[in-house]
Design goal:
The protein is built from 19 helices and 24 strands. By secondary structure, it is α+β, with helices and mostly antiparallel strands.
């Protein structure tokens, strides 16, 4: 470590360097959001100190009133934003300004397209906050002293790949950020412009925001430029859609519009106010394995935590906004929240209100709800697996792709379209929609006009294990061996065009002998119309896609044998069946049998069990065909 009088030079984390390079080198159409982000961070810093001061009141001795001050200096070409919040020490500056620790970094950076108008919207989705300063500044200086500590530190960078860190003269508690405004961004040195930005994005901030101008080294009288009242405490009738949107963008560090706004006050046994939003676009950390919600918890307008996994279930982690309790003690610790009965009752009530709001959205605005489902359906379906109390409601709003058309369908709509004699809700699971549509298992159902749900989310295989039926109709995978198509009408294959039963029986016997323990069984099927073969799971065995998922995540150390089904009407099977009754059939059919099995595996999206052997056998077969 360097001595106290030495300037430390640090390289940015690789992800930060890429991000800053994008910001510094690009010209954005919405650069004004830098001020919103910095004010949001300053507000969070004040919130955190106010919480810490509940148990350590000495932290705010001599300066108990929190505030945020924005100062523009045209002559110096600087914008300064100062707060008297929690502040940062040396380690905090490195952790908060030198790295991006939040999950989803790779996904965020991978989506950068080079199209600046599209990329800037991703900044808000990811919530990069402080780094947005480099959109308007060619150098940023940060001076900060953490509450309760003596040392003050200065952080400085031009956003070109490195930053410096050094001790500074003792300053007041909190953080002061100075932006050295780059050429072409002079509009942000105008007080009127800054006032407009604050009014647009930050009017709801609960701490007073003061605006000042510096002239000839003198700072003019500061003026308060925000209402400074917690938006969620105000009656809904007094709040405009624009104010809701501005608060959502502040709370979620987002650019999109809220797809659904839920604002209410609960009174009675427990009292709390909630202002919650369903985004239009997926947050970058939606599929983070930690599954942490991002709703903020307040107690009597005092910020407590944004780690609210005890308050919001994981399957609603896409929600943004605040919950403000009147019943929790102000000095409640984050650890105490886990077992607090009031939190448990609030969680139940909030979850019920959100699910009810989603149900209402589905009924009143089908098109709008489908957009919500497009973004968050894979997460909401986790609730079908986890939340037994609301399982029926979640099944009711669940939407699926199916063979009926390109749009979404509900389970109720599916049941309403079922054919006479159909007793099950059929589905196929696959890694993606294209793979599901290509599945050979659909052929027999499609030829009979039987609708099949196309399930492509990993969670589908898990919630199905908890839900045996819907409205009395059992869920049944089309990859199960016992799927009985005969009672659904029609024939998948033209029996007159199929190989004679004697030849087919001989072929099945030869395939069983050739494949041995590589398969559980070999049999003919009426589920295929265009494919020669397919693999199916026996009735009591694990579904093929679920087995694949578990193996990919090292949750399964064995592979259940599958049944190979052959289509007796397929030209290839008929040709092989004719060969099965001739002398030396077993030796002649050994390689074709292995090729059929590998073909079936490829149709399931899997590799041949022996890729080298598969390539050799295929080459030999092609050579024979080419030589007649």
């Amino acid at each position: 470590m360097s001595s106290a009088d030495t300037v430390e030079i640090h390289e940015f984390q690789a992800e930060v360097a890429r991000l800053l390079n994008m910001m510094v080198r690009s010209v954005y159409s919405e650069t004004e959001i830098f001020l919103r982000e910095l004010i949001s961070n300053a507000s969070d810093a004040c919130d955190r100190l106010r919480y810490e001061a509940l148990t350590r009141p000495e932290l705010i001795d001599g300066d108990p009133e929190f505030r945020i001050t924005v100062t523009a200096d045209k002559a110096a070409r600087t914008i300064t934003l100062a707060d008297n919040g929690i502040g940062m020490n040396r380690d905090d500056l490195i952790a908060n300004l030198g790295t991006i620790a939040r999950s989803g970094t790779a996904a965020f950076l991978d989506q950068l397209s080079g199209d600046t108008r599209k990329d800037v919207s991703l900044i808000g989705q990811f919530g990069v906050g402080f780094y947005s300063a480099f959109m308007v500044a060619d150098r940023v200086d940060v001076v900060s002293r953490k509450a309760g500590e003596e040392d003050t530190w200065r952080w400085s960078s031009d956003g070109q790949g490195a930053y410096t860190l050094e001790p500074a003269e003792r300053a007041e508690r909190g953080t002061t950020i100075t932006l050295h405004v780059r050429e072409g961004e002079e509009e942000y040195l105008e007080a009127a412009r800054l006032r407009h930005i604050v009014a647009t994005y930050s009017d709801h901030i609960a701490f007073p925001i003061h605006l000042a101008e510096a002239k000839d080294g003198e700072v003019t009288e500061e003026q308060s430029v925000n209402k400074g009242s917690a938006l969620w405490t105000r009656p809904k009738g007094e709040i405009t859609d624009e104010q809701y949107t501005a608060f959502y963008r502040h709370a979620g560090h987002a650019f999109d519009e809220p797809a659904l706004t839920l604002h209410y006050k609960a009174e009675g046994t427990i009292e709390y106010a909630a202002l919650l939003f369903v985004p239009e676009q997926r947050p970058m950390d939606l599929f983070d394995p930690a599954r942490k919600p991002r709703v903020k918890l307040y107690v009597k307008r005092v910020f407590i935590t944004d780690d609210t996994e005890n308050l919001i279930p994981g399957y609603l982690r896409f929600l943004r906004g605040v919950v403000d309790s009147e019943d929790l003690p102000l000095n409640i610790s984050r650890e105490m929240l886990q077992n607090n009965p009031v939190v448990a009752r609030m969680r139940k009530a909030i979850t019920g209100r959100v699910v009810a709001a989603l149900e209402a959205k589905a009924k009143e605005d089908a098109e709008g709800f489908e957009k919500v489902w497009e973004s968050f359906g894979p997460v909401i379906k986790e609730g079908i697996y986890e939340d037994g109390e609301r399982r029926d409601a979640l099944l009711g709003i669940a939407r699926f792709r199916s063979t009926h058309g390109d749009g979404w369908t509900s389970l109720a709509d599916y049941v309403g379209r079922m054919k006479d004699g159909q007793e099950a809700i059929y589905y196929v699971s696959a890694p993606d929609l294209a793979a599901a549509k290509r599945s050979p298992h659909l052929e027999g159902f499609t030829s009979r006009g039987v609708e099949v749900l196309l399930l492509t989310d990993p969670v589908d295989d898990f919630w199905l294990s908890m839900v045996p039926e819907f409205e009395g109709k059992a869920f049944k995978s089309v990859t199960r061996g016992g799927a009985d198509l005969s009672r659904l009408g029609g024939d998948a294959a033209d029996k007159e065009a199929a190989a004679p039963e004697g030849q087919t029986a001989a072929l099945v016997a030869a395939l069983k002998e050739a494949l041995g323990e590589a398969v559980k069984d070999v049999r003919t099927t009426d589920r295929l119309t265009g494919s020669a073969v397919c693999l199916v799971a026996d009735e009591g065995d694990m579904d093929i896609n679920l087995q694949r998922l578990l193996k990919q995540h090292d949750q399964l150390n064995f592979e259940a044998l599958r049944i190979l089904e052959v289509n007796p009407g397929h030209p290839l099977i008929k040709a092989l069946a004719a060969r099965a009754e001739q002398d030396g059939a077993l030796d002649a059919l050994r390689d074709p049998a292995l090729l059929l099995l590998d073909q079936a595996r490829i149709l399931e999206g899997e590799l041949p069990s022996d890729p080298a052997g598969f390539a050799r056998r295929l080459a030999e077969l092609m050579a024979k065909g080419l030589h007649g």
